[in-house]
Amino acid sequence: MVHLPRPFFFLLACLSLAAAPGWAQLPPAVPAASWLVYDRAAGEILASANSRQRWEPASLTKLMTAYVVFEAVRDGRLGWQQAVTAPEAVRRVGAEETRMYLRPGNRLPIQALVEGLLIVSANDAAITLASAVAGTEEAFVARMNATAARLGMTGTHFNNPSGIPGPSHYTTAEDLLRLTLAFDRDFPQVYAITRAPRFTFQQFRKEATNPLLGRNASVDGLKTGHTKAAGYNIVTSARRLPGAAGQERDLVAIVLGTPSKAERARSAELLLNYAGSAFHLAEVLSAGRELQRLRVHGSAEGEIAVGVEHTKQMALPAGTEAQLRITLNEPAPFAPLPRGAVLGQVEALQGERILARAPLVALQEASPAAWPLRLLDWVALQVMRWVS
What we know:
- Its EC number is 3.4.16.4.
- It catalyses: Preferential cleavage: (Ac)2-L-Lys-D-Ala-|-D-Ala. Also transpeptidation of peptidyl-alanyl moieties that are N-acyl substituents of D-alanine.
- Removes C-terminal D-alanyl residues from sugar-peptide cell wall precursors.
- The protein has eight helices and 17 strands.
- It has 388 residues and is an alpha+beta fold.
- The chain has two domains: 268 residues, Beta-lactamase (3-Layer(aba) Sandwich), CATH 3.40.710; 102 residues, Peptidoglycan synthesis regulatory factor (PBP3), Domain 2 (Sandwich), CATH 2.60.410.10.
- It has a six-stranded antiparallel beta sheet, sandwiched between helices.
- The radius of gyration is 27 Å and the shape is elongated.
- The termini are far apart.
């Protein structure tokens, strides 16, 4: 495990503005070892610092624990209302650890255990779920690591389901983003759990560990974590967050290694507010929209509309727009041309910086003209090429 020296400080020198050109507003100073902020609609990390730095996840580990449980339920190996038994191993959960006060032999439904796992970060819930899914913690941890590898989390390794520190227990901000996006894709129902302000089961009642849930109505999870070695970590999801130009934004902020609970919450809020105000969503390429009309020699149509087949949305610095540059493979194409034929390339630019590229295609068919006109066009085209 590699740790940065404390205090944790302002890592603007290592900062990466992944989607923004040089004139974007600089992000706030974040007192963390590693962080990033991501825009779901644009599919871009808007800003980051040390986002591939290995760091102890602490209880953020439980996100992977939950993901493996969700897979087991989806595959029919467990049921949400299925009661499972707390194993002997829950005895080793210490008094200083967060827990649901489970005793060996207690029986609880899977759903209640997952809620306790994610809302209040109960370590005994993690151990019980691991036993229910795989029989032993060791077998469950093997599944966690296999799942991490499958999701592309190449900077991650787990050695327990709870987040107990260890030299081979680590992750990165980018890997936690991959896991969050896997929840978005595979198990979006997780947010019905992680947005809950408190957890109640029978006589047990406790407030959620995520303080942003009570401060920002857009926040719907996901998880906090803390150990002495890791500092204070958080993965925060926000939906329909008010942003620049009246746009609502779907964002993820991940902060690892802040020095206090207060700084953890403040840092996540700063990044969400920065992403919402410093950037706006722009459709830099629009599927099916006519970009220009192109003369097609020898065609009955004379001209056809050209454009792109797929829409590309990006987060651009507030107050800026993209420009388009079109390059033709053949400046004087000859009919016939099918709809969808690639005729060149379109680039979305800010200054000389290329934001996106896409093939320029025919948005309509160019059918052959009657033979006299077709012949005249062909002769004219040859003369034009010879003269040029």
